[in-house]
Automatic annotation (TrEMBL):
Signal sequence segment: 1-27
Organism of this sequence: Pseudotamlana carrageenivorans
Name of the featured protein: F5/8 type C domain-containing protein
Gene3D superfamilies: 2.60.120.200, Galactose-binding domain-like
A Pfam family this chain is assigned to: Alginate_lyase2
Length: 536
């Protein structure tokens, strides 16, 4: 008995020693553990791809917790496997702000108050082009804003840059920054005025929260201002981490300029350690408790109650030669940029038709567009009955949504009043001036019972239901089966009554309405029905 006990004790001691030198065998701290709201951010990897969500995302060689478990390390190695990020020539490991629940990328305007606080240390610069950005406010690239205000280090020169000097000249914070120096920085925007606070004594956040941080304010004394820029713009968001301002070709170029030989095998990287960070929008800090958990993985959530099962899809003009492109990927209930349907309208018809099994009343279609974050897609949606011979356009010349969407986000479009078995999406190209329409997933909503339970009586009742078409509409809508209704009231999105009138007949002029979404309330003696109408 004693011998067995001694063996157990020896094994326990060996295990404790072995585990102490093998931290992978112990539960690791991951970056999300050091984030106030892990749902509120996504990371752009050095290879240009993105990762979201982050709440359970393990340590990576470019995004991990340091040995003392008190900082997130953003590391970018400059080598041939790391390419430039989309819309940039440089490499990054950088967080980008999203809505607090992680559902969409966030975009705000410079009206109101917006604050980001970061405690960090820039710990390493590239060997030859030793430039790096840590913390930034990003604006609308199409308006020439782009990197609106960033904290940038070149050698030992730490300064604020405003879209590379295009918005205003650079503003020096210090000329002798030493790598590894922990510092706090606050970027604050109040109704277009951009303020910056900087400190290396560890007291900035405490003083800022107390309203006594004026001694840390970076002032534009030359122009008599306590702010560094006054500019209004939109499509704005915060970024945190490491945006290394170099790549392989730049390292070669700068090595040549310095009369040195570039060694592609030598260790060469940029690195930032972030100890703490938070954002405030109009007084709400880090989402005020919203978020903090990863959403369910794609394909693991049950379908919506009114989602119709798609039985099949047929693509016309489908891109060939790729194993990850095909019609089945557009309704496999898995949203990913790796598997999708695509066709090029510049060489012929680009369409995909979904079979719902039998005629059904339709309410909405939800589409996940590939590359939704960098381009919009123009398309039509048409519906046909169970014969599939003639398609009627329900939506024409529609652009996908421009702001805040990625491939993970479902974009919904109204099909109210439509009835049919087949739903066709016809692509016309995208805003990147190519003919491609690329779709990762489609969901169709409406009458979703099995075809065997849709009796003749049900179909008859549906055919007699009040309906409006086309929808969206430009000037005139047609009204079907309105004999039981007498008046129609039109309300805008905020609930304001825009118009009230007797139902004019089988059609109605809406040319006087502004573009937008309206609720049409049809009233009769025994019934009231609301219909959503989109005025183009």
């Amino acid at each position: 008995m004693k011998q067995n006990l001694l063996k157990i004790m020896r094994l326990f001691t060996i295990c404790m020693i072995f585990c102490a030198f093998n931290p992978k065998l112990i539960a690791q701290t991951i970056p999300a553990d050091l984030m106030t709201n892990c749902s509120q951010w996504k990371i752009t990897k050095p290879d240009g791809s993105e990762q979201k969500p982050l709440c359970e995302y393990p340590n990576q060689d470019y995004f991990y917790v340091n040995n003392t478990n008190d900082a997130i390390v953003f590391r970018v190695e400059i080598n041939g496997s790391n390419g430039s990020t989309a819309n940039s020539n440089y490499i990054r490991s950088e967080l980008r702000e999203r809505l607090p629940d992680g559902s969409l990328d966030v975009y705000w305007t410079t009206a109101g108050q917006h604050v980001i606080y970061v405690e960090q240390a820039i710990t390493h610069l590239p060997t030859y082009k030793n430039h790096l950005v840590a913390t930034q406010i990003h604006g609308n690239k199409d308006d020439g804003i782009d990197d609106a205000m960033v904290l940038r280090l070149e050698g030992e020169h730490l300064f604020l840059s405003f879209n590379g000097g295009k918005l205003r000249p650079d503003f020096t914070i210090k000329t002798n920054y030493q790598l590894g120096t922990k510092h706090e920085v606050i970027f604050e925007v109040i109704d277009g005025k951009h303020y910056c606070y900087y400190s290396e004594d560890g007291n900035l956040k405490t003083q800022y929260d107390a309203g006594t941080a004026s001694q840390y304010l970076v002032k534009d004394t030359a122009n008599g201002n306590d702010y560094v820029m006054d500019l209004n713009y939109n499509q704005t968001y915060f970024k945190v981490g490491n945006y290394t301002q170099s790549n392989v070709s730049k390292e070669k170029e700068y090595a040549d300029k310095a009369g040195q030989t570039y060694d592609p095998n030598a260790l060469n990287y940029g690195e930032v350690e972030v100890y703490n960070f938070s954002v405030i929008h109009d007084g709400v800090a880090d989402g005020a408790g919203e978020g903090g958990v990863d959403p369910p993985a794609p394909g693991t959530t049950p379908p919506a109650e009114n989602e119709i099962t798609i039985l099949d899809a047929i693509g016309v003009g489908t891109e060939t030669g790729k194993n990850n492109v095909g019609s089945p990927y557009a309704f496999d209930n898995v949203v990913t940029a790796d598997f999708y349907w695509a066709a090029d309208a510049s060489v012929g018809e680009a369409s995909i038709t979904f079979d719902l099994g039998c005629n059904r009343d339709l309410t909405e279609i939800g589409i996940h567009f590939l590359k939704a974050d960098i381009r919009t897609t123009n398309f039509d949606i048409a519906v046909s009955d169970d014969k599939g011979a003639t398609f009627t356009n329900v939506i024409t010349n529609q652009d996908s949504y421009k702001t805040g969407y990625t491939v993970d986000d479902e974009q919904k479009f109204d099909l109210t009043g439509s009835n049919g078995r087949y739903v066709k999406i016809v692509g016309h190209g995208n805003s990147a001036n190519t003919g491609w329409t690329s779709i990762a997933e489609v969901h169709i909503y409406g009458q979703n019972g099995s075809c065997s339970t849709l009796s003749t009586g049900d179909v008859h009742a549906n055919n007699n239901a009040l309906s409006i078409y086309p929808n969206p509409a430009s000037n005139v809508i047609n009204i079907a089966n309105a004999k039981d209704f007498e008046t129609v009231e039109i309300y805008n999105l905020v609930g304001k009554l825009v118009s009230k009138q007797a139902i004019p007949g089988n059609s109605m002029d809406i040319s006087n309405l502004k573009s937008g979404l309206y609720i049409f309330k049809f009233s009769g003696k025994n019934n009231t029905v609301n219909k959503r109408v989109i005025k183009k």
